[in-house]
Amino acid sequence: MIDVKLSELDELCVNTIRTLSIDAVQKANSGHPGAPMGAGLMTYVLWDRVLKHNPADPAWPDRDRFVLSAGHASMLLYSLLYLTGYSGITLDDIEHFRQWGYPTAGHPERGAIAGIETTTGPLGQGFATAVGMAFAERFLGATFNRPDGNIVDHHTYVLASDGDMQEGISHEAASFAGHQKLGKLICLYDSNHVQLDGPTSLAFTEDVGKRFEAYAWHVQHVDGMVADDVEAALRAAQADDRPSIIVARTHIGFGSPNKHDSSKAHGSPLGAEEVALTKAAYGWPQDKAFYVPDEALAHCRKALDRGSKLQSEWQARFDAYARAYAAGARQFTEAMAGKLPDGWDASLPAFTPDDKPVASRVASGATLNAIAGALPLLIGGSADLSESNNTDLKGKGIASHEEPAGRNIYFGVREHAMGATLNGMAAHGGVIPFAGTFLVFSDYNRPAIRIAALSEFRSIFVFTHDSIGLGEDGPTHQPIEHLAALRAMPRLHVIRPADANESAMAWKAAIEHHGPTVLAFSRQALPNLAGTAHGGARGLLRGAYVVSEADGGRPDAILLATGSEVGLAVEAQALLRVHGVCARVVSMPCWELFEQQERAYRDDVLPPGIRARVSIEAGVTQGWHRWIGDEGDAIGIDGRFGASAPYLTIMEKLGFTAENVAQRTLAVVERVSGVKA
Q: What are the backbone dihedrals phi and psi of residue 633, each rounded to the nearest 5 degrees, phi first?
């Protein structure tokens, strides 16, 4: 079966991609063969004729980025990576697709194989992540390029499916990209009219092209099975200053006599008989699984020579740039390597107990602006809440097509796309991205947070209004279960600082962490604690520390708290002293960091012999018994949501008073010791 206007050699290469995918899925008895069969041609055209990359150096800073948003078609990407010569993937890996101990997972995972730019699979995530990559490219280009020296000049390509187009995140992200006029973003839309349940017409009849026209994108419609037409569309997209989408009509299961254009080719193996029939249609040897013709491999491996030449040309430009702009070249190199400027944290603000109480969200904003000068590649914004989140970088410009070096990003009310865009900026490298909204709305970008954790992106999620302490806005805006839900996510640091000093230190922890961080800040003003002053808040970097020691240093009980409730614990400590109970107050802003400490330190902060422990946090108590033990008491909010009232009233009604904490601690001490306090 010969594709239209495709040379015999190109046809051989495309069919190698298709048959590798078919064989891998068949052997695994699991996977998605149909998309690689249908989209294989246009993706091959992109990688063979257009994509600027060097398989020998997957981290080359000025490479084009390719994102397989249709992550279920992972064998398409694995085939391309292997055939073009990326290290870290072998034919044996492909033969063990979806098997334990092999990097060829069911969906692409960043870090598993060089060349995978981001983890994908949850539909829409890759598309929105690609928006962030294009955004970072534009910002870095505007920051570093000079009229006589272009060192940042590349495109971001994304292959998206019908499912990607249906997910709500793609709408948010496309709208944002169109508004920002991200002209280096190009989407190949694999429009095959089929999804798992059947034809897309069962659920999806909109005109995608018109939708994207409304988003101010450049839109083209092509036959995705005609190589020259695909290439021409890609060249036209490169020449346009708008983000581009190429609506490519393809055929899922292409070449399969019985499953061509059928949902039966979507998410399950073709079956041995159909594999044989399909290979016959391709003119392929039917007795050879994972067959790679020498001519096809040799042609695809030419990507190594092309890539070496392209990178050498860029290196010559960069060397000339470095001679003319030594400081800029050094800054760019260090930024792309993830290195922070020396002494950047010297500008972190410090506060004393004599300073007036301040909301931790305000302290966060003060910290951001204090370090903004020392971290010129720190960029971010919020979802239409910059004044509430305190995420504005004063005097640093508003990011736009007209001001591409602006560091303040107005994401609009698009929390989900905001999170994924943040990931794309982190994936691209060179910038330190952050974005904010209310903690309760972390539900809207939780899938993006999970991708950040899977991919280990340095994405900083700023969440304010962190508890019932926000008051009158009521239960819809008061996070109850969110801290526990976020803490359940592996590889994610969740930090809830107690006051202004801890807020500053939380930013240090987030910026120095090579992975995602959630920062949860208060709306209400918090006192500056004596224990965090004069460098005491550095204990946050270890996750938990003694913020107020018991009299004599020999505690009868330990009070553990986070955020606004640390100050409450200190108040309760004073009341307990009147009753003859010496309590230690431990601020525990980041469980994950505390878990990483050596056992000796953890036992020093939480001595195993002290069983009388009480936790205080204005949220569900889930998880706290790990730290307080079976004999401890967890003061929190279980079995209900918050309420609409002044926050001090809500705190009192729900038991967050020093008196209640003291009484419940006395009860624990009595229960554990058997002696009435």
A: -130, 130
- Whose structure tokens read 């939780």? 446
Q: Read off the tokens for 453.
A: 């954790």
DSSP result, 533-584: TTTGGGGGGGS-EEEEPPGGG--SEEEEE-THHHHHHHHHHHHHHHTT--EE
pTM of the model: 0.96
Report the pLDDT value the prediction gives residue 2, as an integer from 0 to 100. 43
Backbone angle region of 400, left / alpha / beta, with phi > 0 → left and psi within -120 to 50 → alpha: beta
* pLDDT 10s digits, 566-625: 999 999 999 999 999 999 999 999 999 999 999 999 999 999 999 999 999 999 999 999
Q: Among this protein's residues, is 11 annotated catalytic? A: no
DSSP class of 458: -
- Give the pLDDT confidence of 400-423 residue by residue, as tens digits: 999 999 999 999 999 999 999 999
State how far the alpha carbon of 551 is from the alpha carbons of 548, 573, 581, in Å.
9, 10, 9
How far is it, in rounded angstroms, from Cα 638 to Cα 442? 20
Q: Rounded to whole angstroms, how far apart are CA atoms 50 and 228?
A: 12
Q: Which of 167, 261, 251, 166 is nearest to 204 (CA)?
A: 166
Burial of 231 (0-12, 13-18, 19+ CB in 10 A): middle
Return mean pLDDT, the chain. 96
- Largest Cα span, the chain: 90
pLDDT of residue 677: 62
| Cα 32 from chain centre | 25
DSSP label at residue 606: S
Round to whole Å and give the CA distance between 172 and 501.
36
- The CA distance from 250 to 546, in Å, is 62
Of 124, 234, 112, which Cα lies nearest the Cα of 184?
234
Cα–Cα distance between 181 and 184 in angstroms, integer?
Answer: 9
CA distances from 570 to 23, 469, 583, 615 (A): 64, 18, 9, 12
CB atoms within 10 A of CB 328: 17
CA distance 51 to 36: 18
DSSP string, 502-518: HHHHHHHHHHH-SS-EE
Burial class of residue 150 (count of CB atoms within 10 Å of its CB; 0-12, 13-18, 19+): middle
The string over 347-361, giving b where at least 16 C-beta atoms fall within 10 Å of a residue's C-beta and e elsewhere, is ebebbeeeeeebbbb
What 8-state DSSP symbol labels residue 356?
A: P
Residue 5 amino acid letter: K
SS3 state of residue 68: strand
Provide the β-strand partners of residue 437.
463
The neighbouring-strand residues paired with 584 are 558
Paired tokens of 449: 């947070």
Q: What is the mean pLDDT of residues 192-221?
A: 94
Q: Which residues of 12-122 form beta strands (DSSP E)?
A: 65-68
Reported as a pLDDT band with limits 50, 70 and 90, residue 262 is confident
3-class state of residue 219 by DSSP:
strand
Residues 6+ away with beta carbon under 8 Å from 125: 69, 169, 420, 423, 447, 448, 451
Q: What is the DSSP letter of 3?
A: P
The bridge status of strand 460-464 relative to strand 432-438 is parallel
Query: 415, 502, 565, 617: which one is catalytic?
Result: 415
CA Rg value for the chain = 28
Cβ atoms of residues 132 and 423 within 8 Å: yes
